[in-house]
Design goal:
The complex is a heterodimer of chains A (111) and B (116). With 111 residues, chain A is an all-beta fold. The radius of gyration of chain A is 13 Å and the shape is globular. Chain B is mostly beta strands and 116 residues long. Helix content of chain B is 0%, strand content 52%. In chain B, strands 2, 4, 5, 6, 9, 10 and 11 form a 7-stranded mixed β-sheet that branches. A 4-stranded antiparallel β-sheet of chain B has the order 1-3-8-7, with no helix packed on it. The radius of gyration of chain B is 13 Å and the shape is globular. The chains are: A mainly beta (111), B mainly beta (116). At the A-B interface, strand 4, strand 5 and strand 10 of A face strand 4, strand 5 and strand 10 of B.
Chain lengths: 111, 116
C-alpha cells in the first residue's frame, strides 16, 4: 500500500523560510507531488519530483531523496497569502496510475 | 492551464435519494480521472480512479454499488451517490490527468454534498 507522513501544522512569520517534510511508503514509486489548498478551495499543483534532487519554481522548491523515501517543500520569502494547507502526494501502484495524498500540513503565516 | 469543472458546486438532498456529480475537463482530454472526498480540515481520500471506457478502480472500503462512477468520454466523468445518507455528506473533488505520463492532476472546484 501507500502511506505518507507530514507535520500537521507549521507556523512562520512573513518573509521567513519554511520547510515542510514528507516521508512516504509506496510500491512502485513514480514521483512525489506537492499541492496547495486554501480553505474552501480546490488543491492546486505546486511541483513534482520524479528524480532525486531539488526542483525550483519561483519562491517554492521541492526536494526528493528516493533512497530515503523522503521529500520536502521549501517556501521562501513567506507571504500572508501562503497560509494554506500543503499536501504531499505520492504517485505509485501498478502503472503509476494511483496518487495518494498525505494528511496535509496547515501553514500559518504571521505578520 | 488546463481547467476542470464540476457541477453542481453544492447540493442538498434528502436521505435515500441519489445525487449525480459531473466532472468535465474543458480544454484537454482526460484519460484518467480521480474522485476524492474530503472532510473538513482533513486530507483528500481517494475513492476511485477511472479510465475512459473502462470500469473504475475503487479503493478499499469504498462501496462501488453506492458510489457509481462512469467515465464515458475523454472529457466527462460522473459520480452518483446512491441512496444517500447523512454520513455521505462531504466535499467531493474530482481531478483529471491528461495522459498516463502526465504528472500534474488538475482539480475541479469540488462539490459540497449535504444529506439531510
Amino acid at each position: 500500500g501507500q502511506s505518507l507522513e507530514q507535520p500537521s501544522e507549521v507556523t512562520a512569520v512573513e518573509g521567513a523560510i519554511v520547510q515542510i517534510n514528507c516521508t512516504y511508503q509506496t510500491s512502485g514509486f513514480y514521483g512525489l507531488s506537492w499541492y496547495q489548498q486554501h480553505d474552501g478551495g480546490a488543491p492546486t499543483f505546486l511541483s513534482y519530483n520524479a528524480l532525486d534532487g531539488l526542483e525550483e519554481t519561483g519562491r517554492f522548491s521541492s526536494f526528493l531523496s528516493r533512497s530515503d523515501s523522503y521529500g520536502y517543500l521549501l517556501l521562501q520569502e513567506l507571504q500572508m497569502k501562503d497560509s494554506a494547507s500543503y499536501f504531499c502526494a505520492v504517485r505509485g501502484g501498478t502503472g503509476g496510475f494511483k496518487t495518494i495524498f498525505g494528511a496535509g500540513t496547515r501553514l500559518f503565516v504571521k505578520a | 492551464g488546463a481547467v476542470v469543472s464540476q457541477h453542481p458546486s453544492w447540493v442538498i438532498c434528502k436521505s435515500g435519494t441519489s445525487v449525480k456529480i459531473e466532472c468535465r475537463s474543458l480544454d484537454f482530454q482526460a484519460t484518467t480521472m480521480f474522485w476524492y472526498r474530503q472532510f473538513p480540515k482533513q486530507s483528500l481520500m481517494l475513492m476511485a480512479t477511472s479510465n475512459e471506457g473502462s470500469k473504475a478502480t475503487y479503493e478499499q472500503g469504498v462501496e462501488k454499488d453506492k458510489f457509481l462512477i462512469n467515465h464515458a468520454s475523454l472529457t466527462l466523468s460522473t459520480l452518483t451517490v446512491t441512496s444517500a445518507h447523512p454520513e455521505d455528506s462531504s466535499f467531493y473533488i474530482c481531478s483529471a490527468r491528461e495522459r498516463e505520463t502526465g504528472n500534474e492532476q488538475f482539480f475541479g472546484p469540488g462539490t459540497r454534498l449535504t444529506v439531510l
